[in-house]
Amino acid sequence: MRILRFTLIVLLLFVAHAAMGEKKRAAPQTAKDLVGVWIGFDQDDLTFTRLELRADSTGYCARVSPGNTSLHNYGVQVYRIDKWRVDGGNVILNLTPISSNAEPVYLRGRLGGIASLNLEIGSLNKKWKLRLVLNPESRIQASNRETKEAIDAVRK
């Protein structure tokens, strides 16, 4: 009887562990999921990027260095996104410089985890390239607000 009870308990624990370990896979992102505003910094933290993707496969991209760096003096570089698309897990964007300080660049990459874009930006003459990870602006704002409120609450 004890062996049967022990076996039953072990079996139940095994089933419970297997059920907890089973994770639902997120559905792959589609072009529709990418519509909106994406923000983040390049790998060197010297340039902030704002990417606005519209449902009609156009949009805008703007880049600027933080105000506490000498690179900030170059100003904001603005690009029009003539067309963007998702091909499998790849994101391809065709950019046209709009501001006078914006050089011709490419921007492409892959869909990241649940809600990120892992991109590479570089000059068309192949002199430089950088990686950047962009996240939905709303996700950053919500997390920032919640963490700020939590800290403010414990300060009181």
Q: What is the annotated CATH architecture?
A: Beta Barrel
Q: What is the CA-based Rg, rounded?
A: 23 Å
| Low-confidence region ranges | none
Kindly estimate the percentage of residues that lie in beta strands according to DSSP: 35-45%
Give helix and strand order, one letter per element, not per position: HHEEEEEEEEH
CATH H-level superfamily title:
Calycin beta-barrel core domain
Instruction: Determine the structural class based on helices, strands and strand pairing.
Output: alpha+beta
Compute the number of structural domains. Answer: 1
- Mean pLDDT score: 83
* Continuous helix count: 3
What is the fold-level CATH name, i.e. the topology? Answer: Lipocalin
Strand order of the largest sheet: 1-2-3-4-5-6-7-8
Q: Biggest β-sheet, characterized?
A: 8 strands, antiparallel, barrel
Helix content: 25-40%
Global outline? globular
The CATH class name reads: Mainly Beta
Q: What is the strand tally?
A: 8
In short:
The chain has 156 residues and is α+β, with helices and mostly antiparallel strands. Helix content is 28%, strand content 38%.
Describe, in plain words, how this protein is organized in 3D.
This protein is of the alpha+beta class. The chain has one domain: Beta Barrel (Lipocalin). Helices cover 28% and strands 38% of the residues. It is built from 3 helices and 8 strands. It is globular and about 80 Å long.
